Amino acid sequence: MLSIVDNRTFKRLFFQVLDHDPTQDDVIAFFQRFQLALQARHLTVQGITTDGSSLYPVAIQAVWGDLPHQICEFHILKDLNQATLRAVAQVRKQLAAQQPKLGRGRPSGAKRKLAQKRQRLQAKIADLFEQRYLFVQHHLTEAERATVHRITRGLPHLRALREITDEIYRLFDRRCRTNTALAKLAHLRQRVQRFTQLSRILKGLFSVNVEKALTFLDDRLLGATSNAVERGNRRYRKMQKTVYRVRTYVQIVARLALDLFREAAMQPRTALLNLLHSARTGP
Asked: Rounded to the nearest 5 degrees, what angle is found at the Cα of 195, between the Cα atoms of 189 and 200?
C-alpha cells in the first residue's frame, strides 16, 4: 500500500492499494497522480519525508525535481541501534567461548580458580543480556550510567560504543542547526574510523541517508520522521486483527476511503457539535 500523509495534521491525503510489491514505476505514477490533484487545488509540495527505501529518490526527482527530501530519523536510529545490539550479542558469544570447561561435580582444589573464572564470565554475560537496552537507550540516569560503566569493565569498545550512541542522538537535537549537525557528523565519522571494530559495527553511520535525515533540522514545520504514515498503518493493522474480512483488496480500499471521508467531515462535524452544545446550555 502506498500512502501520503500530512505530517502536521496526521491526516491521510492520498493512497493506493497494490496487489504486488511496489516498483519504481508504481511510485512514480502514484506521485504523478498526487501532483495532478495538488495542481487542481493550486497547492505545492514544500518537502517530503520517507523511509530509507531506494524507490523514493528517483521518483521524487522525476516528479518534483530538487524537492527537499528527508529520510525518516526513526529508521536511521533503528538501524544503528540494531547494529549496536548485534555488537553486544557478539561480545556475549565471545565471552561464552572463553568459559573454561569443567567436569561434573564439585570442582577440586586445582580447578577452583577455573570455576571462579567461569562464574565471573557467566555473571558478565547475564549482565550484558539483562542490561543490553542501556546501550541504545536515549537518556540515562546516573544509576544507569554507573551500571553501564560496571558491566563494560574490561570491554573498552563497548564503553566507546555507548559514548558514540550519545553523540548520534545529539545529531538529531532540534535545537541544532543542519550545518552544525553535519559538521558534528563528519567529526564523529572520523572518530569512529580510528577504531576498526567500531567502524565495522557502525558502517550504517557512513551512509548518505544519515545526511538526508538532517535535512529538516532547521524547519520547525516539516517533520523529522514518517510517524504520521506509520501511525495510520498501525491503526489499520490493528483493525485487521479483529475483523478478518478487512484483509481483502476490496475491503482495504473501502476502509481507507471511509477513513478519508471521516477525516474530511471531522472539522465541520466538530463545529456543529460545539454549536449544538452551546445552544443547549443557553446564554
From this structure: 75
Separation of CA 60 from chain center: 21
* Helix, strand or coil, per DSSP, at residue 3: strand
Domain ranges of the chain: 2-72+225-281, 74-208
Cα angle vertex 1, ends 172, 251, to 5°?
Answer: 135
Q: By the 8 A CB rule, do 221 and 197 touch?
A: no
DSSP E strands, 7-152: 11-16, 48-50, 69-71
Amino acid making up residue 39: Q
Q: Which three cell numbers mark 45?
A: 509540495
The type of residue at 261 is F
pLDDT, one tens digit per residue, over 10-37 is: 777 887 888 888 888 888 998 998 899 8
The three grid cell numbers given for residue 41, joined into one nine-digit string: 487545488
Q: What is the pLDDT of residues 47-58, one digit of tens each?
A: 888 888 888 888
**Phi-psi category of 183—alpha, beta or left, where left has phi over 0 and alpha has psi -120 to 50?**
alpha
Q: Which of 12, 2, 9, 6 is nearest to 262 (CA)?
A: 12
- Phi/psi at 193 (nearest 5 deg)? -65, -20
For 121, the grid coordinates are: 564470565
Topology at the third CATH level for domain 2-72+225-281: Nucleotidyltransferase; domain 5 (3.30.420)
The band of 253, judged by pLDDT with boundaries at 50, 70 and 90, is: confident
